[in-house]
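Notes from the pairing session

We agreed to fold both candidates in a single pass and log them together. This is the raw record for the first candidate, unedited. Please don't reformat it; downstream parsing expects exactly this layout.

Candidate A
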Amino acid sequence: MKIAIITDQHFGCRKNSKLFHDYFLKFYDEVFFPALEKEGITTIIDMGDTFDSRKGIDFSALTWSKENYFDRLNGIGSLWYCTGAWTLAWRVTLAVQ
């Protein structure tokens, strides 16, 4: 069984920079998704830090990530997600305050 591991995508970085999102999309279009298909990979592990802000999500970044990452993963297989340091609301606890 082959798996893909991806990490530290930081959607919404640099105040939701279009330049960064265009670069991410180029990677997905030319490298990541073609490699999944070519290699027959159906298990993806996202190691966290998918979004750049731990205190909130920019709706534009959320929409972009849904359309260009999550929706494209739908139907490929299984996605396992780990919580990264930037995903947590607080550094010392998992509790929502």
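Candidate B (folded immediately after A)
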Amino acid sequence: MKKYLRACALSRAPDKMHLRRKIIDAEQAAPEIAREAIALVRALYAVERQAKEAPVDERLRLRQKRSAPVLAELREKLLT
């Protein structure tokens, strides 16, 4: 998983579906970490559902407030 995340950082950020699929694939190797990571990805989806109808500036604020900490936690889980 670390190798995949580093490759993404060098090219471009993967979309959430691709990331979720990779986490599910990794579940056999590290089931506890994978379950926690999937829960975090679900939290990101919840933010996106909430932001879907919001104006662009409000969507940005919502993502900065709610998604950024989740992404930081997800990154930490996957890289450690």
